[in-house]
Amino acid sequence: MGTATEALAKVYRQKHPSETLEVLPEPMSTTGGIEGTKAGRLTVGIITRSLEENEKKQGLVYRTVTRIPVVVGVHKSLPVANLNDSQVCDIFSGKIKSWKDVAGGEGKITVLGRKKDDNSMETFRELMACFKSLQLSSDAVLLVRGSEVLDSLNNRPGTVGISVAGSVLLERPNIKAVAVGGVAPTLEAVKSGKYRYFNEVGVVTVGEPKGTAKRFVEFVVSSDGEKILEKFGMAAAH
User: Fold this and answer.
1) What is the pLDDT of residues 198-211, one digit of tens each?
2) Is 30 exposed, middle or buried (0-12, 13-18, 19+ CB in 10 A)?
3) Fewer CB within 10 Å, N or C, the chain?
4) Which helix (H) or strand (E) covers residue 112, if one does?
5) pTM attached to this predicted model
C-alpha cells in the first residue's frame, strides 16, 4: 500500500499545511508495522491482518481501512475469463495440466507459487473449501517474493498464480484477473461482498490515535480517501 499511502499523505498535507506527516518510503511487513508501532518508531503502522489477543493486551488498537482483491492471475493472451472453484483447485494441484481443459486454448499450465505461503494464498485456503489443504502441483515453480510471481505472470504466457491486485497489478498490464465462480474481482464486487477473496488492510496505533494521526486515519476512511484508494485498485472497507 506504499504508493497509495504517499498519495493519501500528499493530499492530506495540502488540506493541513501546518501539520507534519512523514511516510517511511521502505516497504514493511505486518510484523514490522506492529513492532515499529510498539517501539515508538511509527505513530501509525499499516498491517494486513487484525490484531491477535495478546497484541491487544499490549495496548495496540487496530482499524480496518481498505480491502485489496486477491485474484487468480493469468497472462492476458489467454482466452480464459472465468474459473469455478473445482477448476481453480484442479489447476493449482496439477490435476488439470492444459489450458484447453478450461477453455483457455492450447498450452501447458505453469503453476506459480511461493516457497512459503503468503497472505494471498492463505486467503484462498481460508475461503475456498477445496483449497484448504491443497498441495501445490509437483511441477509448480516456487518463487520467494510476490513481485516475482507478478513479473512471471506479466511476462510468461501460460502461467497462473494467486496475488493481491491493487497498484501492483495495475503496473503490470499483461496480467488478467479471472472471475471466480462467475464473479469478477471488481472493486464494487469486493465492497458488496459478492467477490469473497480479498485482504483487509488496516492501521495500528498504541491506544486510540490522537492529533494528526487521528485526523489522517479519519481522512483515509473518508469519501475523499476512498476515491484515492480506488485509483490504486483498493476498495473501501465500510
Assistant:
1) 999 999 999 999 99
2) middle
3) C
4) strand 110-114
5) 0.84
